[in-house]
Amino acid sequence: MLNLLNKKKTMALLMGLAVGMTSTAFAAENQTVQANEQVKEVSDTAASDGNEKTKDTADDKKDTSAVDSFSDVPQGHWAYEALDYLAKHNVIEGYKDGTFQGNRTMTRYEMASIVANAMKSDKGDIGDKAVLKQLEAEFHADIQNMQKQIDANKADIEKLKEDAERVKIYGFGRVSWDNDNIKGYADQNDNNRFYLDLKGEFKVNDNWKFAFESETNQRYARYVTSNGDVKYHEGHDDSDGVIQRVWAEGNIDKLHVDVGRRWRGLGFQNVLLGNETDGIVLDYPLDNNGLKALAFYQKPTDAGYDFAMYGLGIQGPVSKNLQINLAYAMLDIDKNESPGYDPYNGNAPLVNTFGSHGLVLSAMWNPLRNITLIGDYVRTNAETQHVTEYVGDRVNNFDIDENTSKSIRLNYRWTNLNDPGSFQLYTRWFDYGRHGNIMGDEEWGLLKPGSNGWVFGFKYVPAKNIEWETMYEIADMYDGTYGKQNEQYKRHLLRTQVDFHF
Fold it and tell me: How far is CA 109 from CA 16, 112, 356, in A?
């Protein structure tokens, strides 16, 4: 027995278990002098045992006198050395706040856990192992029950995690302000707004998900039209705050399917098409690096438009630093046929400004670190449009024969929403023909058909998930006002906006 008492780990473990089986887990600060003397005797005995040995184990050589394992057990505490020793050998653990809470009652499960940990970390001799074997036999059933409970808890956690991942809600809110001298667009001047883009995904199974998108786009209480008229808040649009888009996405073996109503684009800068559509898009991998072929059938949902477009494309990386995005689209109408009617002008037939075919050649190149060059070239087969305007006694006759659009963007760095302080600088040159796209993305009125010029801007992340962007555009643009549609002016647009991602 004396030989057994000379073992530091065994004595620490026995002392912990002995007091643990009393009404409190460990004795309080005002424990009796007898208890203090017992602990001192344990410490002295362990120390003398170390002096008698010429070579100790690696565990016993560790200096724990300067280590506080638990914040509520100071070095002067009567059980400090025993608890600190057991903690450093991973036999006992404290709470997340770094405390031991020695006055709390110990359960048999906690005691069984101590025994199990001691068995895992034991490096002692036959005397130590004999005690541990006796403790193992005593708490064998408790250890088994505890393991069953751990396994059950793990299963419950996995089930909760799976349930939580079935539903995902995300998006961003935007506060923006424009100062714009655009002409002929009554709803684009001083285009100031609050905006919310809310998206949701519902996991159906491992291969399919269903998604939705809701946009709320509210102007500030006061804005100015291109004619100089001051407008005030007149209520809410019925389309704001509702779910405008729903679609399903999934895989059939290697074939990816995207079907329903959502925002879709063609080309890296969405010059040929960047609009909400009803339809289906299929893509199939061509290699293991992300290059894929796609086929699509889509119908724009803008009021009055009644045509469909279908076609083929190829997207993805073709080398380490180069990606391509190519597409050819055909319409189900002739190039001289009206694409629909104008609901804002007595349902008059709309003029076909894009023909019956469209092509986009788009590429993204990284020639240097932090440098990205993006280019889009778009061409349609739109017919030359002959326009006649009657302005008083004057008649204006002119032709519109502009069926190409081009855009080149240069980026320096990228922003990272998880990295406050990250930023991007960019510039863009563009030349958008008046008939040079089908329904391209105008980026909130920034890039209008019939304009060419430059955009300079920056993005900055001041805090996690917050991005600030400011841009300035200077461009030569055709006036959209009747009677002046073939006259150009210098457009100046300053826009700043802050996005709050969630």
Answer: 14, 5, 76
| 3-state SS, residue 68 | coil
- 151: its two tokens: 């396994």
Residue the block writes with tokens 């209008």: 448
Give strand ranges (E) for 42-189: 167-180
Distance CA 51, CA 311 (A): 86
Predicted model pTM: 0.71
324-328 long-range CB contacts below 8 Å, 24 or more apart? 324/362, 324/363, 325/266, 325/267, 325/268, 325/360, 325/362, 325/363, 325/364, 326/360, 326/361, 326/362, 327/266, 327/267, 327/272, 327/294, 327/296, 327/359, 327/360, 328/357, 328/358, 328/359
Give 198-230 pLDDT, tens digit per residue: 999 999 999 999 999 999 987 776 666 656 666
Measuring CA to CA, which residue among 254, 253, 340 is closest to residue 300?
Answer: 340
pLDDT one-digit tens code per residue, 250-259: 999 999 999 9
Q: Are 325 and 362 in contact (CB under 8 A)?
A: yes
- Evaluated on CA atoms 156, 158, 161, 162, the torsion sign reads negative
Burial of 92 (0-12, 13-18, 19+ CB in 10 A): buried
Please tell me the distance from the alpha carbon of residue 487 to that of residue 478, in angstroms, as a whole number: 6
Model confidence pLDDT, tens digit, residues 266-303: 999 999 999 999 999 999 999 999 999 999 999 999 99
Q: How many CB atoms lie within 10 A of CB 461?
A: 21
Q: What 3-state class would DSSP assign to 189?
A: coil
- Tell me which amino acid residue 403 is: N
Exposure b/e, 416-428, CB count within 10 A at least 16 = b:
eeeeeeebbebeb
Between CA 422 and CA 414 the distance in angstroms is: 7
Nearest Cα residue to 131 out of 113, 119, 120: 119
Q: Which residue has the higher pLDDT, 220 or 330?
A: 330
The average pLDDT across 64-76 equals 67
pLDDT digits (tens, 9 = 90+) for 404-441: 999 999 999 999 999 999 999 999 999 999 999 999 99
Minimal CA–CA distance to 247: which of 195, 273, 196, 212? 212
Cα 420 to chain centroid, rounded: 15
Question: Which amino acid appears at position 502 of this protein?
Answer: F
CB atoms near residue 22 (< 10 Å): 11
CA distances from 215 to 71, 203, 466 (A): 51, 22, 19
Q: Judge contact between 105 and 24, C-beta under 8 A.
A: yes
